[in-house]
Amino acid sequence: MAESGNRELRVLILEDSENDALLLELALKRAGYQTHCRRVDSQPAMEAALREEPWDVVIADYVMPGFDGLSALGLMKRLRLDLPFIIVSGHISDDTAVAAMKAGAHDYVMKDNLARLGPAVERELREAQVRREQRRSEERSRTEHVITRLLAGAETLEEAAGGILEVLLHVLEMDLGTLWSPANQPPGLRPLHISTRYETPSLTAFMARTRDLVLAPGVGYPGRVWQSRHPIWIQNLLVCNDFDRIEAARAAGLNSYIAFPLQTSAGSFGVIEFVGENLLRPDALTQNMLSAVTSEIAQFAQRWAAEEALRRAHEDLELRVRQRTADLQIANAKLQAAIAERRRLEHELLEITEQERRRIGLDLHDDLGQRLSGLGLMTKGLALRLEKSGAPEAEDAARIHALVQETMNRTSDLAHDLATLELGEKPLPMALMELAARARELFQVRCEVKAAPDLPLLEPGTVHQLCKIAQEALTNAIKHGRATRIRISLSQSGQKLTLRVENNGLPFPDLSGRTGGMGLRIMNYRAHLLGGSVKITGLKAGGTSLTCIVPVERAGESPRQTFDMPPPELE
Fold first, then answer.
1. Distances (CA, A) of 563 to 419, 421, 448, 457
2. 115-119 long-range contacts, Cβ below 8 Å, gap at least 24?
3. 194 and 186 Cβ atoms separated by less than 8 Å
4. CB 264 within 8 A of CB 294
5. Which end of the chain is more exposed for a tag (fewer CB within 10 A), N or C?
6. Which helix (H) or strand (E) holds 38?
7. pLDDT of residue 320
8. What's the pLDDT score for residue 4?
9. Burial state string for 504-521 with b = 16 or more CB within 10 A and e = fewer than 16
């Protein structure tokens, strides 16, 4: 028949009559089949035949002594074989035929009408092929689902590679699978994972040969697939002399070869390769499955590569941050050391200044004062002698004595002014009041102190520096500003203490673009040591205001004292 096209047909015949079996084989040959037939007449013989050889169709007599068609159907179900099963009988009722069909038979033919046998076999072969394709499609879908789950549960491609290869080896019925992945050192494709369905010495040798390879783009079959991004499917590998592992493949009896690229639109991420003994013919269903599977693997590899690059970038960023942090810590340590050294020098400068003031004050008092005192006694004696002798120069001598006495008093005032103010453990308001009292006594100016109640009790060092700032402001106001009224005030706002010294003297010169004198720089140094600042401004009514603001502790954190202030001398 034209439909069969002289197709080879492997037939297992269950028949106790050899002549009837020959008739069945003749009917199939007349239908156009090239048959390979084997006759069995018992359950053991049929089971052995089913296990030993692959068959395209089973033709069974319905009734035989000790073994019949229904028993044969049960045997095939136990062996999980889905082969076209056709009953041929000399006499069979409709009820019997229906029962046989329900048991699993695909068709039945009467022995007196064997012309139906060829078409029945052709039809059942097509339906069996449809069933096989459906099962293969379902198996491919399950395979894709399993691989999706393997990738979803893995953190790296290497972790999922073993499971993926085992699943595909089972579905493709191949013997060895390799997942090739790009490597940097040395550059090229390297086997990420190799799996086998079974182990033999020759297959183990092929696997060892594969494991040692590093393939550049275009080198070897995996390198070609990697470079071209096109799959390779070879049915007879043993005739391919350009295969880089041909000797190992021949030794292992490997015939079929499949290699698919792992690629996305962003690039190629490796190759998956399979070799096997079976002559696996390419078909669209398998190719579509491998394309879908390799695309999913490539997408996973792409995501992993992107995540790995992001992780490395994050690690590099953290490393740079740690390095910058270490550099900043070193720079900060150096800065803190420089600040500490500057403060030490500022303290030393202030101490030197105080010592120099004290030395000058002592020199004025002990040296120059004593000399002027002697000179005053001498001029006094001279003036008395000239007055007794009635000399006209007696009046001049008296004026000289008065000038010497005035110089002595001025020297004494300067010596007291330059002497160090001994504060001890006095609170700031009390120390300022003593400073104001000395100013009134020495310079004959009106000086008052106003302090807000409940001021914090400051440390002696802070009191000393603030008093020195106030003393410098007083000296400048009296000597340079020629002030006659001075007001010193203390107030607190939040965590800041404000010392203000106001006078009615000459306006302070414009300091824009100037650094000020030594006194102003020393006041700034003292305020800086306390973490504060000094500002000098002119008053609308005339005169100058010096404001020093320094930080103090919050209310309630330091003990406080209240001072009874004397009545103010100024409005």
1. 26, 20, 14, 11
2. 115/27, 117/24, 117/27, 117/28, 117/31, 117/59, 117/86, 117/88, 118/1, 118/4, 118/27, 118/28, 118/30, 118/31, 118/32, 118/33, 119/31
3. no
4. no
5. C
6. strand 34-40
7. 92
8. 47
9. bbeebeeeeeeeeeebbe
Name the residue among 173, 154, 171 with its Cα closest to residue 162. 154
Amino acid identity of residue 84, one-letter, is P
pLDDT of residue 450: 94
For residue 6, the model assigns a pLDDT of 63
Q: Which two tokens stand for residue 235?
A: 């049915």
Can you tell me the distance from the alpha carbon of 98 to that of 100, in angstroms, rounded to the nearest whole number?
5
pLDDT beneath 70: ranges in the chain: 1-6, 92-94, 354, 365-366, 413, 416-424, 508-517, 553-571
The DSSP symbol for 560 reads: E
Is the separation of the CB atoms in 17 and 44 below 8 Å?
no
pLDDT of residue 408: 78
Q: How far is CA 89 from the centre of its chain?
A: 78
Sign of CA dihedral 39, 44, 46, 52: negative
Rounded to 5 degrees, what are φ and ψ at 466? -65, -40
3-state secondary structure of 79: coil
* One-letter identity of residue 151: L
What's the token pair of residue 290? 């491998």
CA-atom Rg of the chain in angstroms: 58
Q: Does residue 364 contact residue 415 with C-beta atoms inside 8 Å?
A: yes
Interhelix angle 117-152/284-362, rounded to 10 degrees, is 0
Tokens representing 146? 């399993």
- Cβ neighbours for 173, distance < 8 A, ≥ 6 positions apart: 276, 278, 280
Amino acid at 318: E
Closest C-alpha among 187, 169, 365, 381 to residue 272: 169
CA–CA gap between residue 244 and residue 240 (Å, rounded): 9
Report the sign of the C-alpha dihedral through residues 222, 223, 224, 225, in that order: positive
| Cα–Cα distance measured from residue 345 to residue 352, given in angstroms and rounded to the nearest whole number | 10
193 touches 178 (CB < 8 A): yes
Identify the pLDDT of residue 570: 35
Respond yes or no on whether the N-terminal peptide bond of residue 568 is cis (omega within 30° of 0).
Answer: no
* Residue 396 CA: distances (Å) to CA of 374, 400, 407, 543, 564: 18, 6, 17, 41, 52
Cα distance between residue 421 and residue 430, in whole Å? 13
Given 3-state DSSP classes, what are the helix, strand and coil percentages for the chain, each rounded to the nearest 5?
Answer: 55, 20, 25
Long-range contacts of 186-189 (CB under 8 A, 24+ apart): 186/214, 187/216, 188/214, 188/215, 188/216, 188/217, 188/219, 188/223, 189/213, 189/214, 189/215, 189/216, 189/222, 189/223, 189/226, 189/270, 189/271
Whole-model pTM: value is: 0.49
Q: Is-contact 140 285, C-beta < 8 A?
A: yes
Q: How far is it, in rounded angstroms, from Cα 569 to Cα 65?
A: 145
